[in-house]
Specification:
81 residues; mainly alpha
């Protein structure tokens, strides 16, 4: 990950996928592979934080939606007959 503006989740994920592919195919010498591994760990942590934050937001939105619902009306009792 570069020191520039923070990438989007999708950009970080794509970069991480490229790193994994290079490492899996042995396309980098040892020193570069170690740098790629470290960069991959940073990208993974970044993506994990983004996902955790998104999950928290979804849970909060779901909680708000649940709280804003009107109470359920009691079901009408058809009575005998």
């Amino acid at each position: 990950m570069t020191e520039q503006a923070e990438p989007s989740f999708e950009q970080a994920q794509a970069e991480l996928e490229q790193i994994v592919e290079r490492l899996e195919h042995g396309q980098a010498p040892l020193d570069e592979a170690l740098e790629l591994w470290e960069q991959g760990e940073e990208l993974y942590a970044f993506c994990r934080r983004k996902l955790d934050a998104a999950e928290g937001r979804v849970e909060e939105l779901a909680r708000r939606t649940e709280q804003s619902r009107p109470p359920a009306a009691p079901e009408a009792d058809p009575g005998p007959g």
